[in-house]
Design brief:
The complex is a heterodimer.
Chain A (H helix, E strand, L loop, with lengths): L4 H28 L11 E6 L7 E7 L2 E7 L5 E5 L10 E3 L4 E4 L4 E3 L5 E3 L8 E7 L2 E5 L6
Chain B lengths: L1 H16 L2 H9 L1 E3 L7 H22 L9 H10 L4 H28 L8 H23 L4 H15 L5 H9 L6 H33 L5 H4 L8 E3 H26 L25 H9 L3 E2 L2 E2 H17 L1 H4 L11 H22 L1
Classes of the chains: A alpha+beta, B mainly alpha.
Chain lengths: 146, 360
């Protein structure tokens, strides 16, 4: 390709214009992306006394900024799962009548191991650890989550 | 004396801005009269409701305070303490719904009368963009009261955006102002709702109206082929305009009736740590998509059901926007034209899914 003076000037101006555009748009786009907020690394939270949770019940517990569903089964065991539905981010609840975990948004159903058993959710709920210490229930972040 | 003054002002303006061609254009503007003339009014009604939205939106912004601790509270104040606050808010909500309803009617009537054909391709495209922007208005405005329904609808809606491959997660983050729906989301939605969307809408609306003026009203095929002597027209000024105004008045009355007798409820304040309540559903115009996503299984082949559903809706929307460029032509003797068939299938799908959404 022959490069004459006009083409060279056009390329120079065009390139400069692109560079100028990028230098205008880059700060704009990055401005719109919210900065990462440092979250306090939370490994466990106290959920309450054992007696506060009757068998066959569930309650949402705040785990930092995340909701966790704590369930006491009919047999008295405690289980905890991320309360965020794996389908479209709604918050799930424990259904005492069906003894399942249920998402009201799209009728998703999970069993008491957190496994998705009906409706649209594509993955199981993330489990949390539960420990009872001196009659106090402690929910723990699973170690494999880092 | 008075007419002399008006004449003077007109002459003064005409001398500087050459108004005569505009007046001539308006004088010769005419509207065909036939059995489908009723559909010509739908765009005008949609425009009228948009004007009501702007007007009531400005009034609401004088009391509304965005924020997780003030959105709900400021609206409760507006509804209970401000005189006629409930009325203005109710009109804004009802008018939003009616506007989208009439935009849908306008779109489907344009589709079935094949008014999108050459030379009106871009009128259709800009119209489709206006409907999409109206739905974005609806979606962003839905969150602003910060009530339970709004909170979960926004969670689901933005998560759907996030499921779009490649660009989805970053767009979701920009929309939410973080990884979750929080107070930051209210600020962003408020900014989008009252500044970005109106600016974009006005721009596309101006284009849409210029295109409509340029081409005039579309005539159905059987009428367009008739000799001029057998066609019937009415002048736009004042005949059509006056009919338009009468219809606007009727729509306004219906709107006020709905707003007064079925006032829009505020609901319960959003609690980010409460489970989604039973019976949660989006606005009716998102219902067919919501219901489809509800019915899709977790996985279809190797892809997650929701991702596939969202991709299908995106491709479907794009195809619908580009209808004038791929519209199938049937033989004239065919009883059902292919595009009519497609339109009916789309309408039935939207109708059935919407009914299922409310029934199930």
């Amino acid at each position: 390709m022959e490069l004459n003076r006009r083409k060279f000037t056009n390329m120079l101006i065009g390139g400069g214009l692109l560079g100028w555009l990028a230098s205008v748009l880059y700060p704009l786009f990055t401005y719109l992306i919210p900065p990462r907020v440092e979250e306090q690394s939370l490994n466990s939270v106290k959920a309450g006394k054992v007696d506060d949770f009757p068998p066959n019940s569930g309650k949402i517990i705040k785990f930092g900024r995340k909701p966790v569903l704590l369930i006491r089964t009919e047999t008295g065991d405690f289980r905890a799962f991320s309360a965020t539905c794996t389908h479209l981010d709604c918050i799930v609840q424990y259904r005492e009548d069906t003894k399942h975990i249920w998402c009201a948004c799209h009728n998703g159903m999970f069993d008491l191991t957190g496994k998705n058993i009906a409706g649209p959710p594509p993955r199981p709920l993330m489990p949390y650890g539960v420990r009872v210490q001196k009659n106090e229930i402690i929910i723990e972040k699973p170690t494999n989550l880092g | 004396m008075k007419s002399n003054m008006v004449k003077k002002v007109y002459n003064w303006l005409d001398e500087r801005y050459d108004l005569t061609p505009l007046i001539e254009f308006a004088r010769h503007k005419k509207v065909p009269v036939h059995e489908h003339t009723i559909w010509y009014y739908m765009g005008g009604v949609t425009l009228f409701l948009f004007l009501i939205q702007i007007f009531t939106g400005i009034l609401l912004s004088m009391y509304y305070q965005p924020g997780p601790d003030s959105s709900y509270e400021s609206l409760r104040f507006l509804l209970t303490k401000v005189r006629f606050g409930w009325l203005i808010r109710s009109i804004h909500s009802w008018s939003a719904n009616l506007m989208i309803f009439f935009a849908f009617v306008h779109m489907f009537s344009t589709f079935f009368t094949r008014a999108y054909k050459k030379p009106r391709e871009l009128t259709w495209v800009t119209g489709f963009i206006l409907l999409s922007l109206s739905m974005a208005f609806g979606f962003s405005g839905y969150l602003l009261p910060w009530n339970e329904l709004a909170f979960f609808a926004t969670k689901v809606g933005t998560e759907i955006v996030g499921a779009v491959p490649v660009v989805g997660p970053i767009i979701m983050k920009v929309l939410r102002g973080g990884s979750d729906v929080t107070g930051a989301t209210i600020y962003r939605f408020y900014a989008i709702h009252i500044t970005l969307l109106p600016a974009l809408f006005m721009l596309v609306l101006a284009l849409h109206l210029v295109f409509v003026q340029k081409h005039g009203m579309s005539e159905p095929e059987h009428l367009a082929n008739l000799p001029e002597s057998r066609k019937k027209y009415i002048p736009f000024f004042p005949n059509f305009l006056l009919r338009d105004l009468i219809l606007w008045l009727i729509v306004f009355d219906i709107l006020v009736f709905l707003a007064v007798y079925y006032p829009w409820e505020l609901g319960l304040k959003a609690d980010p740590f409460a489970p989604a309540p039973a019976g949660i559903r989006p606005e009716w115009y998102f219902m067919f998509m919501f219901q489809t996503l509800k019915l899709l299984p977790g996985h279809i082949l190797f892809i997650e059901g929701e991702v596939l559903g969202i991709l299908i809706f995106m491709v479907g929307g794009l195809l619908w926007m580009l209808v004038p460029f791929w519209a199938l032509k049937g033989r004239p003797d065919q009883r059902i034209q292919p595009m009519e068939f497609i339109g009916v299938v789309v309408l039935i799908y939207i109708g059935v899914m919407t009914i299922l959404g409310y029934a199930l």
